[in-house]
């Protein structure tokens, strides 16, 4: 059975695998209110289907997800956006069957949170990542709930604080990715192999096993979610973040950037 959902997220269910495709390449699959709403609905839909053994989260275009929609952020009201992102991370973690993030392109900021919330993540070794929030006067507040349980502490200290770009091979070494094959074709093949393996598993076995492996992240989201929503909303509302987002849109250094 194949089902298609029009809009920013396409849903396809076939042979026990549900594929949710972020389909807003014009803004690099940014986490707009509409995209998040559709992705939440897609996750609800596939979670209720007893035939599904796994969910693949993938994308069109060269970027998996660029993070927050900065145009919406510039218009204000980011508390609602922070709450929606928190709910999205929670939904991915609580989806009863495994969620595999299948990247064919790069990820930035909030988009990395989706990868961390997934049970498995596979991307080519030359894919790039960056926690770019720090360079905009922000912090990876909401996504830290899913990212920090995954990452090596030293790596988190480096990449959260510098905003440096790192590649897929590094992402696998520090725990963000499950695997980083050498090419896009090898990545597709590896995801296909993982899905073939998951088709052999019982849904009950998968759901109960996922409760064990996702317990730490679920607990972190419940305990610190409200605190991170407040922090995220406060940061987005700050004058410094406004300057950071203006500088990003105007393709210039923010006023605090120092020349070496």
Model description:
- The strands form two sheets. A five-stranded mixed beta sheet has the order 1-2-3-5-7, sandwiched between helices. Strands 4-6-8-9 form a four-stranded mixed beta sheet.
- The model is unreliable at 1-5 (pLDDT under 50).
- Helices cover 49% and strands 14% of the residues.
- It has eleven helices and nine strands.
- β1 (9-14) and β2 (17-22) form a beta hairpin.
- α4 runs parallel beside α5 and α5 runs antiparallel to α10 (215-236).
Defining key terms:
260 residues, alpha/beta, four-stranded mixed sheet, 11 helices, globular, disordered N terminus
Q: Main β-sheet: number of strands, strand sense, barrel status?
A: 5 strands, mixed
Number of strand segments: 9
Specify the structural class.
alpha/beta
Write down the overall geometry: globular
Helix content: 40-55%
- Tally of contiguous helical segments: 11
Terminal CA distance: 58 Å
* Order of H and E elements: EEHEEHHEEHEEHHEHHHHH
The order of strands across the largest sheet is: 1-2-3-5-7
Q: Which value, in Å, is the CA radius of gyration?
A: 18 Å
Strand content: 5-15%
Overall average pLDDT: 94
What are the segments in which pLDDT stays under 50 over at least 5 consecutive residues?
A: 1-5
């Amino acid at each position: 059975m194949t089902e298609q959902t029009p809009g920013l997220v396409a849903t396809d269910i076939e042979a026990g695998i549900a594929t949710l495709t972020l389909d807003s390449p014009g803004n690099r699959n940014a986490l707009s209110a509409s995209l998040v709403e559709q992705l939440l609905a897609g996750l609800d839909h596939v979670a209720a289907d007893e035939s599904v053994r796994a969910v693949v989260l993938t994308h069109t275009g060269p970027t998996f997800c660029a993070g927050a929609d900065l145009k919406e952020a510039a218009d204000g009201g980011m508390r609602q956006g922070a709450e929606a992102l928190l709910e999205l991370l929670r939904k991915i973690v609580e989806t009863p069957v495994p969620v595999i993030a299948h990247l064919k392109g790069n990820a930035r900021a909030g988009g990395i949170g989706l990868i961390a919330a997934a049970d498995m993540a596979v991307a080519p070794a030359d894919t790039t990542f960056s926690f770019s929030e720090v360079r905009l006067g922000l912090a990876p507040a909401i996504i830290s709930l899913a990212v920090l349980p995954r990452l090596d502490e030293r790596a988190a200290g480096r990449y959260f604080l510098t905003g440096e770009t790192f590649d897929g091979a590094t992402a696998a070494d520090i725990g963000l990715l499950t695997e980083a094959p050498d090419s896009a074709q090898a990545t597709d093949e590896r995801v296909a192999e993982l899905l073939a393996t998951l088709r052999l598993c019982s849904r009950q076995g998968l759901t109960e096993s996922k409760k064990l492996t996702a317990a730490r992240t679920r607990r972190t989201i419940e305990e610190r979610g409200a605190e991170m929503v407040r922090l995220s909303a406060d940061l987005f509302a700050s004058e410094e973040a406004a300057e950071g987002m203006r500088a990003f849109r105007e393709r210039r250094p923010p006023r605090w950037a120092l020349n070496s």
